[in-house]
Amino acid sequence: MSQTNASSAVCTLTQGTVPLLVSMPHIGTLIPTHLQAGYTARALRVEDTDWHLAQLYEFLPTMGASVLQPRYSRYVIDLNRPPDDSPMYPGASNTELCPTRFFTGDALYREGCAPSAAERAQRRSDYWEPYHEALAGELQRLVQTHGYALLWDAHSIRSAIPWLFEGTLPALNIGTASGDSAHAAIAQTVMQVCVSAERFSHVLNGRFKGGYITRHYGRPAQNVHALQLEMCQNLYMQEAPPFAYDVGLATQVQPTLRAMLQAALAAANTLYAGGNHGH
């Protein structure tokens, strides 16, 4: 399947042949040299990265999917937060557009070095906007080409982080902004795959309902359906340093991941077959 790459200083977009775009907004690990002095030594190890997702989703090119990957760490700017920095989960611990804390609640920056309003605005211009321009542009291309687009926002997280949530997360956390970002038939068919994969616990619109990307771009009435998958990292890697990829674990979950994506695509295709636009 033919794929076209478009790289910038900020992100890489691989254009595929089917109406599926997989966004991986938290896989970046770079912190620009000119910013590094403000961070703690621990922060430069970027422990809260969505580690190894590109490797875990290595089957995407054979599916014909488009893939968008950033270069820079979420510690520089969080691509899955609103540009106005409004909280995604009111009443809970939230990480900001330019995060100032680790997932443990500890400070990312040295004393007095957290980014100013001007610095946050600069980062939004330098890193956030190019990623979202690429994302929006690719969704527009897919809709023009296929009549609809499916956006899959791929994430992973440690299975237990007391500062962010109580207890241990289900293995697979699917979010559709409480049903607003994707047609119910798409969510249901993805959940059916999870049910058949009995070894992996799962939930729909639990603690993680989808961040800014899912909520902003998921517009079923405009033929764009968005789902977020937040999966526990212990499904495919070590959750403690050095955060090593575990091929043995990964190969057990990859067939389920692929089946979830294929089911979502098939459900979307059914919705739009024969000119029915799924409204």
What does this structure look like?
There is one protein chain. The chain is an alpha/beta fold. The chain has one domain (4-275): Zn-dependent exopeptidases (Aminopeptidase, 3-Layer(aba) Sandwich), CATH 3.40.630.40. It contains six helices and eight strands; from the N terminus they run βββααβαββαβαβα. The protein has helices at 53-56, 60-63, 117-146, 184-196, 212-217, 247-272, and strands spanning 4-7, 11-15, 20-23, 66-70, 149-157, 172-175, 202-204, 224-232. Strands 1-2-4-3-5-8-6-7 form an eight-stranded mixed beta sheet, sandwiched between helices. β6 (172-175), α4 and β7 (202-204) form a beta-alpha-beta unit. The longest helix is centred in the middle third of the chain and has 30 residues, at 117-146. The mean pLDDT is 94.
